Amino acid sequence: MLSDQPADKLHSQLDHGPHSRATKVKGRQPITLHPEDAAARGVTEGDLVRVFNDRGACLAAARLSDRIRRGVVRLSTGAWFDPADSGANRPLEKHGNPNALTLDIGASKLSQGCIAQTCLVEIERLEGPAPAVTAHDLPRFVKRGA
Q1: Count of CB atoms within 10 A of residue 20's CB?
Q2: Of 72, 79, 124, 134, whose CB is crowded by the most CB atoms within 10 A?
């Protein structure tokens, strides 16, 4: 998986904005994969897919293109983190955030820069209903003493 910088926002800034939301598919970050790789997994354009490895899993929406090499997928960074179960050790991330799949360590002791540009993943078509994306929902306020 290549996790490049998104064209529709600056990192995750303005992910909630109309321009960024217009590029989502079924409310999720699109993942680009080769049509032959998709066919081998029973995935068609617009299907929701589970992208996973030993570190975690996220949901994304399939976008097919013969302009990407077979065996490679592209999931841009910037979708706001939206875990299905925030108390779980490795929750399913519902919005398409590649950080759920990449190493969470700095590039070096000096820079501590992000090293999350590539990793190995597998993809499968999501069967059944998908959990709602709640990343942009406003927080609920609770009265004091309640």
Answers
A1: 22
A2: 79
